[in-house]
Amino acid sequence: MEESESGSEIIWGTDNIFKAYSVQKGDVDSIWEKADYIVEGEYRTGAQEQLYIENNGMIASFDSRHGITVWGSLQCPYYIQQALMPLCSLPAEKVRVVAMEPAELLAGRKNIRQ
Fold this sequence. Notes:
Elements: H1 2-6, H2 28-34, E1 58-63, E2 67-72, H3 77-88, E3 95-99
Parallel strand pairs: 2-3
Antiparallel strand pairs: 1-2
């Protein structure tokens, strides 16, 4: 982990970051000026993931003419396709992702099928 964070071991892209989101809202500087107290520090927490009710699994098939097809218990096939294209060095038309019907729709999924 330390090698990845320091950049001495690069295994993905230029910085080992697969996906990053930046969220900005409001005028932070004006809030700082109005604050009675400012507490600064570094905080670390453990990872958190919800527990899915259904089983998760994937299977794939590849041939040089048609590319790769992946079937899986997922609701976001677009994200899987976007990750597989550079990983497999294939264009979009040769990466097919099929979302199979999940057993339960109560799981903590972030997006619906696209």
